[in-house]
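Worked Example 4.2. Consider the chain below.
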Amino acid sequence: MKALLPYAAFVTLVACALLSGCGDDPPETVVLSGKIVKGPVQNATVKLYELQNEPLTTGFFVDQVKTDSNGDFSMELKRDYTGYLLLQVQEGNYSDELTGQTVNLSNSPVLEAVFEKTTVADSLAPVYVHPFSTLQVKLARDSQNQIPTQSYFAASSFLNSMFGFDGSAQLHQINPALSSISSSSVGTVGLNSFLMAKHLATFSRMANQEATDDLFNSLDSFLRIQADASDGNYDGFLGSNLLTESLAGPSMFLKAFDHVSLQTASMSSQSAEFLSIRSSLFTTTSFSNAGSGFSTFSSQAFQFTTARIVFQSTNPIEIKFMDSNRFLLVADSANSSLILSKNSTGSLSLLTSASSITGIDYAILDMDQDNDLDLAILRNNPIQPVHVSLATGESNLANSSQALSFQRSPFLVPFGFSTGRFQTSTRSSLAYHTSNSAFLVLDTLSNNPLTLRTRSVQHPAFTSSRLWLSGDLTGDQLDDLLVFQSTQASSSLSGIHFLQNLSNLQFSLRQLLPDSHLCEQGSTGNYSTDSLQDLITLCNKELRFYKQDSTHLLQLSSSVTLPLTATGPFEIIKIEANGTLPREILILDKANSQSSGSKAYPFAILEDKNLVRSQKELTLPPFVTSVLPTQFNSDSLTDLLLIQSSTSRVLLQTQQVP
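Applying the procedure from the previous section yields the following structure tokens:
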């Protein structure tokens, strides 16, 4: 006879069953592990988000961790969650697969991976985040920052065909076998891991081979491939206009891949393994499901209409912006300078004439805080020192005899002046630098009566300087200075001096950017999608983009050389070509302004990093002596007001909406 359980024990067993087990409950969370690979990315920030709805949109934030020295990470998520998840990676650094160079990701776009958790399970397969998982997400994401699942899977198939991976491979499940980069055979690591490692090394080689001078490192190569493929065609061009080369197209990739395979890994060019892999690359280069989720260099950008006449004057030499409706038309010394206003017919009309306001340069500012524009006039010649006068308000602009003369400097002004907020006041200031390296700031002490003062500032960086820029580079509402030294300066002073305005005109050297070239032009502005001010320089026909990082330091992000046909002198023109940040750039080459017309070369910054030039060239009308970028029409694009000296006309070229 079988023994029966005691009643109490029986009750306990039933209760345990009803309560889902006593002491054997499954955990509420499950561990997700993985690796960030572009070379192992150490000290990177990994963030996990739930994705919701269809198309997939970013939902709840789940967790955030740092990677270790091997690029590994581990985090927890709910065990009972099913659906798609997004991993995003920022910051960190890695060692280049070929050169060993340390590459910092602090100013780079995020790496990403999307994956699906399909079941309630106690363990998850590891997830690998690398450029290929990132490219899959980028291609699938649409302009509303959503990811249609159909596009997500189509992007996976496209990239597998493009880079020779197994057709059924999930990119986020491929762990690149970096140790096999120098191996001549797949061995035991598996074809996908072997091939992805070779491709990561190929990115490095692309940045160091002939004809890819604009690529700085392996990540830069990948970003150019990403920008190339963003229109759905990996064809060697940015956008669909077939004018701007990506410098990272299929031919460049294959050239670098062959070098890595045959030289670094010593594969035989006639081996069946190499030939099989080589023939599997780029079996397709078109992707019809591209979502255009990141910016490209649109073929429709920088389209300007034919110039039309908007005003006729006598010997105009320059036009200046006053506000959204008014402009100062500067004439030669024998004629009147004019204040012009936009009218209802889309042209300009005379607002007032300032018959005796003549000078070598003009600044538009509000120095007395009355919300009325003031006009500062500088006159200078080798005999008379500089004379600065101020016309306050429209009545004084109309009758310059009322203009207030407030400064006679004993120095000549060889480099011009700038306006800005140099002191802890909401008033604008006028600053100019002199041949004895003094920095003079003119501002107002009071409004009524208008009282002005001059402050002289000295700094070692002012010696032998040839170009000055101002802008709020530290976000403290005070304008800082960028002082460009010539190559004749001592080695300790040579370069671009970033002088922080500490308040009350006390400047401190925050950063020295080494530069061995003479810089003709520079421009500060919002050239990226964040709110920080960046720097563009033009030095010895090389355009450079310095991006400001989160610590308010300027980092060289990319550069590009002007065409061989460009001779200068040059002018940097900041414009808006597509209606959204960041700003675009026109480089005006004034070499042929008196005959066939000046050339203007368009540039854009992609992915907040890459400075690229369109091979489209704009030609301005002949005899244009002044170009003013302004938003003349009601759209958000920049138009051009031109002074044509030979005909004494003001011309307008409007930009067409892409």
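The radius of gyration is 31 Å. Confidence is low (pLDDT under 50) at residues 1-21, 292-297, 406-415. Compare this with Example 4.1 before moving on.
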